[in-house]
């Protein structure tokens, strides 16, 4: 069985030492969706949510969250993010807000957690901005879509 580097010789969790790893260009894409009621969907679409422009505010919340990932996830390294983008769009057929993120770095460790944090917090922001209308929203499908770089193989969900 492969020894996990997140566990020390006493079986306790530890932050991995990445100082010996080579710096490489790494990217990650993540996805989340928020299932909303017809009323919320129309309010977002018509920019009629009392708290403001849901899609724009959730986008910036996702970007800001990605930059704070190492403060939220205990064993996550603080890495320089050279690019983070968050896109939100409405899917009228599914009555969802679809959220995608793209993150890029040149570092010794991956950037998946930043991409996942971005879509997670963007989804929570959609929920927060719309909860006064209807609290039955469901956050679904938070997942890593792809990653590149580093010594492990590239990953792509599709």
Summarize the structure.
With 158 residues, this protein is an alpha+beta fold. It has helices at 38-45, 54-67, 69-72, 112-130; strands spanning 24-35, 83-91, 96-107, 138-148, 155-156.
Structure description:
This protein has 158 residues and is α+β, with helices and mostly antiparallel strands. It has helices at 38-45, 54-67, 69-72, 112-130, and strands at 24-35, 83-91, 96-107, 138-148, 155-156. It has a five-stranded antiparallel sheet, covered by helices on one side. Strand 4 and strand 5 form a beta hairpin. Helix 2 (54-67) packs antiparallel against helix 4. The longest helix is centred in the last third of the chain and has 19 residues, at 112-130. The radius of gyration is 18 Å and the shape is elongated.
